[in-house]
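BACKBONE GEOMETRY TOKENS
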Amino acid sequence: MKVKNEKEAFSKRLKQQLAKNGWAINSPTWLAREFNLRYQGQPVSVQTASNWLSGNAIPNQDKLQILAVWLDISSQWLRFGEELNDQQESTNTDYHTNITLSDFSDKFAKLTTKQKSLIYHLIEEMLSANK
């Protein structure tokens, strides 16, 4: 029954992080929709999201990575409940950044002029806040 316990533990951590961010934790429809907005692969079904929330399934690694970036946590913690050391976390962050930047220009090019302007100003604001 170790596998079932791991799935339930994953579900608990997922719900915990969703709640921490103030998001609906018991709506598989919402979770599937929000996840699919961030995921470039085959969209997940509502049933898949339901299985994550109910402790019946754990996402594969590429989906875990997306969930971790979205929820601003390490994929290691989300999957296993363990924290990364600083060196692992730095490598993990670089990996997430590469995934995000690799397709950013393609997505940005598809935006309207107004949307591009909003993104540009958002980036400027974020950079000025870091100073």
Notes: The chain has seven helices and no strands. Residues 86-98 have pLDDT under 50 and may be disordered. The helical segments are 2-20, 28-38, 46-54, 61-71, 75-80, 86-109, 113-129.
